[in-house]
Sequence to fold (1104 residues):
Amino acid sequence: MLTEATGQPLDRVDGRLKVMGGARYTAEWDLPGLAYGALATSAIARGKVRAIDVKAAQQAPGVLAVLTYLNAPRLQPMPDKVGGSLFRGEGGITETLQPLQDAAIAYAGQPLAVVVADTHEHARYAATLVRITYDEAKPELDRATASRQTLPEAFTGSKEEPLQVTVGDPKAALAAAPVKLERVYESAITHHNPIEQLATIARWEKRNGADYLTVYDTTRGVDTLQEVFAASLNLPKENVHIICPFIGGAFGSKGWLYAPALLTAMAARVVGRPVKIELRRQDMFSTAGQRGATRQTLSLGATRDGKLTALQHDTQAQSSMVSGYTEPCARVSRMMYAVPNLGFAHHLSHLNLPSPCPMRGPGETVGGWALECAIDELATELNLDPVELRLRNYADKNPETGKPFSSKHLRECYARGQELIGWKARNPKPRSMREGNSLIGYGMATTMYPAARREASARTTLFADGRALVQSATHELGNGAYTIFRQISADALALPVENVRFELGDSALPKAPTTGGSATTATIGPAATAACQEALSALKQIAIRDAKSPLFGATEDAIEARDGRLVRKANAAQGETYAAILQRAKLPSISAEGTAKPGDEREQFSFYSFGAVFAKVRVDEASGSVRVAQLCAVYDVGKLMNPQTAHSQFIGGMAMGLGAALMEATHYDARNGRAVVRNLADYHVPSMADTPDIIAEALNIPDPHISALGARGIGEIGCVGTPAAITNAVFHATGQRLRSLPLTPDKLLKALAS
Amino acid sequence: MHPFQYQRAENNGQAVAAVAKNPEAAFIAGGTSQVDLLKEGVHKPNLLVDVAGLPLRQITDFEGGVRIGANATNTEAAYFPAIQARYPAVSEALLAGASVQIRNMATMAGNPLQRTRCPYFRDPDQPCNKRTPGSGCAAIGGYNHVHALFGASEACVATHPSDLAVALAALDARVQTTGPQGSRTIAFTDLHRLPGTTPHLDTTLAHGELITSIDLPAFAGRSHYLKVRERASYAYALASCAVALEMDGPKIKRARIALGGVAHKPWRTPAAEALLAGQRPTEKLFQATAAAAFADAKPLEHNAYKIPMGRNLLVRALLETSGLQPLAGPAGTAFAASVGGMAGQVATPN
Fold:
C-alpha cells in the first residue's frame, strides 16, 4: 500500500537540476537571431523630455534600433482590471504608465529609450550614448506636503479589503479608556532584490497570417501577463504565449510592473528579431517595484486589567504618480484581537518616486510590526507579560466581520514558543540582562497571514506506460511548487511520486492565478486534485465499458483508485492498472481538466494562519549594533504538504523579516528623487553571520474548512511578526523604544544617548 | 561599459610605460572593485593593463618586518603566519572586509586603491567632483550617512572605504613603487590625499606609477583593528579604528591610532596619540584620548552618529589592545575585529 506523499519531507524535485545549472531561467533562453536591448532611463524625477539625441547611439557598433517615445510602437492603455484585481485608480495594484508613449517623466529611473544591438555589450554601451535633456520640475518627494493625497477605498478593488473601516466607536472608546496609548511608527522604503533580476525575451512571428508573440519572462503571473500583453498590444489573447518554468525569487516583485516586459516586445517588433532585455541591479531600484515607506499611528485603549477597548490604526502610505498602490497596513490590526471598537484608515500620497507593489507580507510585515510593537508598549504600560496581554485579548472570531476562524490554535503557538526561547527564565525588567559588552533582550510578537484561496484549473494526463503528468499555469518561485504539487497529484492518483510529473509556468496550460498572497498551495492543490479525479473518472468509464476489464459493468462509485490500480471497493482483488486499461483501449493517454474554487465556506468562516515569534537579541551599546541570538517561531498553518520545503519557506521568511527589522532600507535623494542606494553592497540583506540558527516549528493541524487538503499557504507568514519580535527584544535589552525601521546602529546610538 | 583595450603586462617596466604614455590607461589587478566601476560607467579607461600576472606575489621577511608583494591576495596576506602573529591588525582588517571570494581575488596593492563608496560617485546621473571634476558634490546637502567627519572640503566629503588601509596607516607601513620617474618609497600615510579642490585624485601616485610592495616595518608591540558595520559580515565600515601600542613595562611607550570611515584617507590622530605616550593604560585615559581624537570632527546632516560611535570604538580598541579588556575573538581573525560579533548563541568573549 502506498503511503501518502503529502506530508513527507520529499527533496525538491528540481533541486538537482538547479544545483547542476540545468534549470533554465528566463535570461538563459537562447533563440536564433536574438538581439539585446538596454534601457536609458530618466535622470530626473519630474518633468518632461525636452530633447532626446540618439544619433551617437544609432551610430555605435552593432546597434539595430533606438526606441524613444517619438518612434516607439503605440500601446493601448493598461486595462482597468485583470483577473479580478483592480489595476487602475486609487488602491489599484499596478503601475499604469505605458512606457515610451509620451515625454512625461514621473520618476527617476523611468525608461526613456531602448537601444537594441547585436550583443548585450553593444546595447549597454550604446545606451550610455543617448543624450537626453529635460524640462525639469521640482519633484514631490514628501508625503506630508504632496499635492495629490487621497483616501483609497479598497486594496486592489477587493470588497474583502476595504481600506477605511470603523467598527463600533473607536473614538469614543479611546476617550473613555482608562489606559491609552498613541504611538507613531515609521518604516523605510525596501526592495525585494531577488537574486534573479527582471528579464524578458520577446519573439514575434506570423502564424496563419496573424501576429503571434512568444514571451519568456521572469513573471509569477503568466496568465496575467498574457492579458496585459494582449490588451496593451491589441492582440487576441490566444496569440500571446508566456513561458516561465523557473523564477529566481520574487518576494512580491515580478508580478505587477510591466514596463520592462512591454519594452522588450516593442523592441522586438521594431527590429524584427527576438530581443532580450535583462535589467541591471541598479534598475531593480527603479522599475521593479518596492515597498513604500509608511508612517503609522496606533491608538490603543484598554482597561487596567488589559482588555483592549479600542484600536485605531491609521496609515500614511505613499505611491508613485502613476500607480494607486496602497500598502494595506491594517491587515493584522483588523483581525488579530478581540476589540469591540476598531478602526483603520489609509491615506495615500502620490510622489515622484518609483511605483510600489506588494512585497512579502504587503501591509502585514510593516503594519503588523507597528501593531505588535504597540501591543508590547501597552504590556509595559500595564506591567503585564506581553504574552499574557495577548491571551487576554485572544479573538475566537474575527472582530471586524464576526465570523469564526476556520481553525485557530494560536494558544499552542504562544506556549511552545515560550518553551523554545526560554521566555520564563528571562528577567522581564527592561535593561536588566547583560553578557560582556552586550545588553540582552527578549521579545515576542504574534504573526498571521490571510489564508486566501482562489479559482484555478489543472489538467491531468495518464499515460499508457503508467506515468502521469499534471499541469497548471502556476509558478515555481523557488518555493517548492514543483515538489508539493507532484506530491498532491501523486496522492490524488494513488501513484508513487516518481511516476508523476508536474508542469507549470506556461500560459498555454490550464488557468491559474498570479502566484502571490500565500495562496498557491490552497489554490493549485485542490485544482490538481480535481483534475486527477476527472482523469480517473474518465479512466473508470473506459474500464466500465470494456468487457475484458474486471471492472466491466461496475458503477463509477463502486470503483476506487488504489496503488496505481482501479479496483472494486467491495473487492480490491478485482481491478487492474491504469496502464492495462489504456493499453487495451489502444490509447496512448487520457487527459482531463479539473477546476476548483473556494465556496460557501468563505461566507461562514474567517480564514487565517497564525503564529508566535520569539527573539533574543544582543545589543552592543557602544556601537548600536544589534545581533539576533535566537529566533524561534511556531506556526499554525494547517497541514504541511512537505515539512522540508515548508521549513525553508518559514526560515527564509524569518530571515527576510530579520532584514526588515535591522538593515533593509533604500534611500532616495530628498532633493532630486534619485535612488541613492542602488546595489547589493549598499542595500544590506542579512548575511549568514546575521542569521542565527532559526527554529521554526509548525503545529501541522489540518484546517477542516479550507479544502480537503487542509493546507493553508506559508509563503509570507515567516516575514510577518519577526520585525516586531526583534524590535520588542531591543526594547527589553535597552529600555528604549525604537519606532523606525530598520534599527540601524545610528538610530540605536541616538536612542541610547537619550 | 565603455569599450577598452586589454593587455597583459609583460614586466614592471612595460606595464608602467604602457600606462604612463596613455592618459586614459589604467592598471587592473584583482579587479574586484574596478570592474563594478567599469560596469557603472564611472571608470572609463581606453586601455587596461593587467598586472595580476607580474611576479609581485611573494610575502617575505624584510628588514625585521614583512614585505608584502603587491599582487599577494588579501587572503594570502591575512593568513600569512608572520602577519597574523606580529601584525594582527592587518589580518583583522582584511578578514573583517569583503567576502572570502572577493579576498581571494583582491590584491594587497589594489585594496588600498579602491574608490570611495559615496553613492553619488557611483551614479553617473548625479553630480560628483570625484567622478566628474567641476560637476559639484551631491553628498553635501544630500544623503551623507556614510561621509566624512574630518578633512573634507567643499568639493568632496567622501570617505575612503578600505579596512586594510586603516591598519597600514596605524602601523606606519611603507609603499614601494616603480613609475615613469623611477622607483621610490612612500610613507603609507602619505599615499592617500585629502580632497581639497581636486577630489578626483585619491592618491599621490603619479599616472603610471605601479605599487610593487607594501612593507610593514619592524614592530614589537600589539596592534588591533575594530569595525562597526550595518550587518555582521560583508559590509563597509560605518566607523573603524586601528591601534598600535608599544609598551615600556606597564606604560605605553608609543601609540598610533588610525580612524577609518571618517575621512578621505585613514585618519591619524597625533594629538590623541600624544596623550598616551608615557602613560599607564586606564579607561579614563582612553576616554580622554577618544575625546581628543574626535575633538575636531565636523559632522554633516546624517553622519553625526559616527562621533559617539567612533569614540566608543576607539576606547574599546585601546582597552582590548592594552589588555584591559579581552578581545572578542582570537587575535588576527575577523572575530576579534567585528564589533557586535555574529548572530546566534555565542559564548561570552574569551
